[in-house]
UniProtKB/TrEMBL annotation, chains A, B:
Annotated protein name in UniProt: Homoserine dehydrogenase
Classification via Gene3D superfamilies: 3.30.70.260, Dihydrodipicolinate Reductase, domain 2 (3.30.360.10), NAD(P)-binding Rossmann-like Domain (3.40.50.720)
Pfam families, per database record: ACT (PF01842), Homoserine_dh (PF00742), NAD_binding_3 (PF03447)
Cofactor(s) essential for the protein: a metal cation
Residues annotated as binding NADP(+): 14-21
Gene Ontology BP terms: methionine biosynthetic process; threonine biosynthetic process
Amino acids binding L-homoserine: 195
Record function comment: Catalyzes the conversion of L-aspartate-beta-semialdehyde (L-Asa) to L-homoserine (L-Hse), the third step in the biosynthesis of threonine and methionine from aspartate.
UniProt keyword annotations, A-Z: Amino-acid biosynthesis, Metal-binding, Methionine biosynthesis, NAD, NADP, Oxidoreductase, Sodium, Threonine biosynthesis
Pathway annotation from the record: Amino-acid biosynthesis; L-threonine biosynthesis; L-threonine from L-aspartate: step 3/5; Amino-acid biosynthesis; L-methionine biosynthesis via de novo pathway; L-homoserine from L-aspartate: step 3/3
ACT domain sequence ranges: 359-432
Enzyme's top EC category: oxidoreductase
């Protein structure tokens, strides 16, 4: 199979930050193993950085460093480009230039893939080169390859992912320590799990990008970040977390991609990111601290879960290097691995038509007829109630209602109506319930 | 890349039992998706069975059934052979004949791979064809592909697997219901989780085959079933399970493959199957009922876990079909996927040199000096004690000792010495402790 003898495989690394420096380190430390696994030595041909004199976590020979990333990827002798700069530009232009120049590409860039993946996939297809991105979703956890290869003979019906470590850390602290959101966020920031501006994590933007990529892979369709319904965790209260505990659940920020039926009976993709209550017996419930996990349901395999560190320099670099070995082998053999698969071309279901369950906590007047009025509000919108629990008396009276599955539109109309009712003082908590059998 | 137009890919299925019938069913039901993913229609060319008129779970057109498996694999037009007969012969001869005749092979045959994998890998290499076997370890759980592809840029240091559903079901019942071994086994048999003759599962033979395959993959070395130290669960008592609970642990049958240092300081592979106590906080501890999970530690990625159904017709068929899609794509392109990687060629460490920890429960005379005598026995063999707990008084006095890590030889010599001591009435339980930080 070796068409080029032991000619070294030349790798250009774009970016030498948290991930890039670990990629460079591992390329050095594992060079013997990598050569054996690829079938040829793997050589760093250059490392593109923003500033030559910036401090970095790894020693890079000065001769390899360059600020001219475009010059590096187009210089003609590069076999594989590893893009770990992140963000939309210049990453996109550099990847496109690399593919046009005959290099295969490994990237960890979730934002770019979620925003404009198809442009990149088409360029890779046209160039006859690989574009691999295991590191873009859930860090070190192998999930891209299992979805597009291991489950290629099966029909995936649902993916539930804890794909953001920052928010999982915060929710875990709220659950185990009884912290409020702000307090848990501060702890996450102090420990380096959350950034000074935590918006991308806390408001679900990071998870939404990953949800789009997972949905595309699982359902062989094109789903972009703009298709993802997104709600973050900043409104989750310690009361919500206690309510979850009361019903044997835990609150997690989930990236959900599932096949739902449209009103006309076709299969469409529902893709969303929001906090949800899941039963404590669910495998995802035991994912603690900043770990990630992706739970996959398919028709033949049943329930699978993939668990591990979802971020960090070395774990992400491990995923990048796994891709690098595959891509390098293909490159040497003049073949390609599995590329984009979008043949199913399924539509994305509007959030309103997505079928979920709601947990609703309502402060009510403690008087006869209140329960009947609340039940009527659910019935009016055709939402069936699974359980109602009354807590407290007098001014503290609260009803906790858990619905059966209904469309999100029916559920939110029900909550809207509850909010307008005389007997309802306040709807204190509304949260979706996922991962149950119904 | 398509070198043969839309010429159908012809598949021969050997065996139409629990797994084979599901493979045939899915090949029919998923034919549209499979064609899109492979790039050509996938056609069943024949199904080899022992008896044409046997009852089976799927309708196979009579014209496809044959009792001449060898004739089927050698007839010249077969692209891929799926072997789901199991056992050593005739499976081995059929796979070798298939490869010689230019077919690629997908197999679920753990026993054959663990006993004589190298013969098959060499035949595949010589023929320039693929030999894939995701279904051979942990059923539907993608673990072969992650180990040989996703982690190809990393250094795996340890694999801990719950890879036998029967024994996990039994141990889970002993833990959650307080059942004894016999009672839990009967429940497993009544529910179809254990066979009438449960030896292969209960005595760890099935897990040992999987341990050999996992060790070969993780450490790029050749490890066979004969290299695996094997102990089953038939001696695990409800007292052991209670002792585990007392120290915050749970008993699991683990398949363990890890890098240990030899006395001369080289890296060697320790591979073993035995019941062990693991902390309840360990991700493997929450694997319930007949589920499987494989926990992987690597230098860069850290801790990963892969969880799912480890057996059953449809889950195993899902893994077979995932391989089939990969193999079929390669076959059409005239390329091969990743084959055997045994370059590291590490030695297998004798069990006596393997470093583990022991939990030892000892019935002792309740008199002064007993603890000192027991501690001396440990010290004599250079085994450091982590904790000692005394339980009961008088005739019920019991010492529970948990050691630090030492070689298995030192630990078993210590237990031997304890058994010979005057003050020791009985060593009631000896179990290894795994999955802790030390």
């Amino acid at each position: 199979m070796n068409t080029e003898g032991d000619k070294p495989l030349k790798v250009a690394v774009l970016g030498c930050g948290v991930v890039g420096s670990q990629v460079v380190r591992l390329l050095g430390e594992q060079s013997g193993d990598l050569a054996a696994r690829v079938g040829a030595p793997v050589e760093i041909a250059g490392v593109a950085v923003r500033r030559l004199d910036a401090p970095r976590d790894v020693d890079v020979p000065a001769g390899l460093l360059t600020t001219d990333a475009l010059g590096l990827v187009t210089r003609g002798d590069i076999d594989v480009v590893v893009e770990v700069i992140g963000g939309i530009e210049p990453a996109r232009s550099l990847i496109l230039a690399a593919l046009e120049n005959g290099a295969s590409v490994v990237t960890a860039n979730k934002a770019l893939l979620a925003e404009d993946g198809p442009t990149l996939y088409e360029a890779a297809e046209k160039a006859g080169r690989d574009l691999y991105y295991e590191a873009a979703v859930a860090g070190a956890i192998p999930i891209v390859r299992p979805l597009r290869e291991s489950l290629a003979g099966d029909k995936v019906t649902r993916v539930l992912g804890i794909v953001n470590g920052t928010t999982n850390f915060i929710l875990d602290k709220m659950d185990t320590q009884g912290s409020g959101f702000e307090e848990a966020l501060e702890e996450a920031q102090a420990l380096g799990y959350a950034e000074a501006d935590p918006t991308a994590d806390v408001e679900g933007f990071d998870a939404a990008a990953k949800a789009a990529i997972l949905a595309s892979l699982a359902f062989h369709s094109r789903v972009t970040a703009a298709d993802v319904h997104r709600e973050g965790i900043s409104d989750v209260t310690s009361g919500d977390v206690r309510s979850a505990t009361d019903m044997g659940c835990v609150v997690k920020l989930l990236a959900i991609a599932e096949l739902n039926a449209t009103e006309s009976g076709e299969e469409a993709v529902s893709v969303r990111v929001h906090p949800a209550m899941i039963p404590r017996s669910h495998p995802l419930a035991s994912v603690r601290e900043a770990y990630n996990a992706v739970f996959v349901e398919s028709e033949a395999a049943g329930q699978l879960m993939f668990y591990g560190p979802g971020a960090g320099g070395a774990p992400t670099a491990s995923a990048v290097l796994g891709d690098l070995v595959s891509v390098a082998r293909n490159h040497r053999q003049g073949t390609r691995g599995v590329g984009e698969s979008a043949y199913a071309d399924r539509a994305v279901l509007p959030m309103g038509e997505t079928r979920t369950r709601y947990h609703v906590a309502i402060d009510v007047d403690d008087r006869a007829g209140v329960l009947a009025a609340v039940a009527t509000a659910f019935a009016t919108h055709d939402v069936s109630i699974q359980t109602v629990r009354q807590e407290g008396r007098g001014d503290d009276a609260q009803l906790v209602v858990v619905s059966h599955e209904a469309t999100d539109a029916q559920l939110s109309a029900t909550v809207e109506e509850l909010r307008g009712m005389d007997t309802v003082r306040e709807v204190t908590s509304v949260m979706r319930v996922e991962g149950t059998d119904e």
